[in-house]
Amino acid sequence: MLRGFQAAASGMYAQQRKTDMLTNNMANVNTAGFKEDQAAIRAFPEMLLQRLDSSSRAKEVGSINTGVYMQETIPRFVQGDLRQTDRQTDLALTDIAGGPVFFTVESDGETKYTRNGRFTIDADGVLTTGSGWPVLDDNGNRITLNSDQFIVDRNGNIEENGELIARLGIASTETPEMLIKEGSGLFRTEDGTPLGNAAENVSYSVTQGFMEASTVDPSRTMSEMLTAYRAFEANQKILQAYDRSMEKTVNEVGRVNG
User: Model-level pTM greater than 0.90?
Assistant: First the structure.
């Protein structure tokens, strides 16, 4: 009976965590460059049940599952749609071949990565993200401009008044699923080792005056939220049934008549 309590409770907890993840996806449906999270739900190892017969010999009853858990959340690295904004400081990345690429930024003294190209220029003329993190060039330096009247070509070269100022630092990795997702649309490597600039076999394009839309599909996400809620509710009802059975066992079956 107690195993049933544990299995139902683990199912409720897993679905609650999934609902939290889906809620965060929905909250970022309009966030530029946002990559939706997907849940990986796994079952705990099965247990083999045995019973002792009248001769005290063990006989196999069968296996029982001890519950489920949400193992991890994995960002879904697919290309988002490009939407025109006509803002000179808005830049969008398009993955062509070789895997996803990222803008490199400086955050808390570390090099981190983002797909959110809704940039701005701060009071010192530094190109920054919307959260104020400096955007880096391909040498790891901050990019300083005189105004927002600059031009960026498809390779990430930045020109101002006909002069080449810098080239955007565009990083790539063959294992994007290993990146750790942080707030403000940032990603970092697990051990803090910076990714290299996009390799020769990686093809991409930078488009100025556009933003990459979020990859969240509101209709599908709402459907998944309803499914998770129903699964939570089903486990809740199972838990209530176990509770009533335990109550009956204690108050009726276990009663000692005087």
Answer: no
